[in-house]
Amino acid sequence: MFHLITDKIKLLNFFLYLIIFIGCSTRDYSVKSLYLVTIKSPELKYSDLGTISKSGEDVAIELFAFGNKILDLKLEKLITINGNILPPSIFYSKYLKTDYPDETIKQIFLGKPIFDEKNIQTGEGWFSQNIESISYRVSNKETLFKDSSKNIIIRFVKQ
């Protein structure tokens, strides 16, 4: 009798995992990696482990604390933050208190140059850009974006 209940629980768990991880996905984010992610702005304050998933030019960031999802950020044509869908300009003004070009945050999480590669310096496995109050550096293991005039830090380190 006990084995029958245990088998039913295992089967139920299997179907729950199947539904959660396969059925709920609307986009195939094929590259998924674990990072320590820090996002600090006037309205956002996170520093936790999470995943950064990529699908073409789209990015999904999920942060977790004590096993609970605390941030769900999708950077597509529009930006979705914890279920709220916003145009990039509204996201920037509401959460970052700035007016960066629409693709800036997506370029940061993709590890690509920003602001048309202005002031870019490159080396083997890294590049950096320093533009007025902005310092941006990308290497194989770490990305750091810092805007000292707006008190914005976006940093992620591959685990």
Question: How does this structure look, described?
Answer:
- The protein starts with a helix and ends with a strand.
- It is globular, with a radius of gyration of 19 Å.
- The longest helix is centred in the N-terminal third of the chain and has 22 residues, at 2-23.
- An 11-stranded antiparallel sheet has the order 6-5-4-3-2-1-11-10-9-8-7, covered by helices on one side.
- Residues 15-25 have low confidence and may be disordered.
- It is built from 3 helices and 11 strands, in the order H-E-E-E-E-E-E-H-H-E-E-E-E-E.
- It has one domain (2-158): Clam (outer membrane lipoprotein receptor (LolB), chain A).
- A hairpin with a 2-residue loop joins strand 8 and strand 9.
- By secondary structure, it is α+β, with helices and mostly antiparallel strands.
Structure keywords:
single chain; 159 residues; alpha+beta; outer membrane lipoprotein receptor (LolB), chain A; eleven-stranded antiparallel beta sheet; globular
Structural class: alpha+beta
CATH superfamily: Lipoprotein localisation LolA/LolB/LppX
Average per-residue pLDDT, rounded, comes to 87
Rg value: 19 Å
Q: Percent of residues in beta strands?
A: over 45%
- Low-confidence spans: 15-25
**CATH architectural type:** Clam
SS field, number of helical segments: 3
Number of strands: 11
- CATH class value: Mainly Beta
Order of helices and strands: HEEEEEEHHEEEEE
Shape: globular
CATH topology: outer membrane lipoprotein receptor (LolB), chain A
How many discrete domains? 1
Strand order of the largest sheet: 6-5-4-3-2-1-11-10-9-8-7
Q: Report, as a whole number of angstroms, the end-to-end distance.
A: 44 Å
Task: Summarize the amount of helix as a percent range.
Answer: 10-25%
Largest sheet: 11 strands, antiparallel
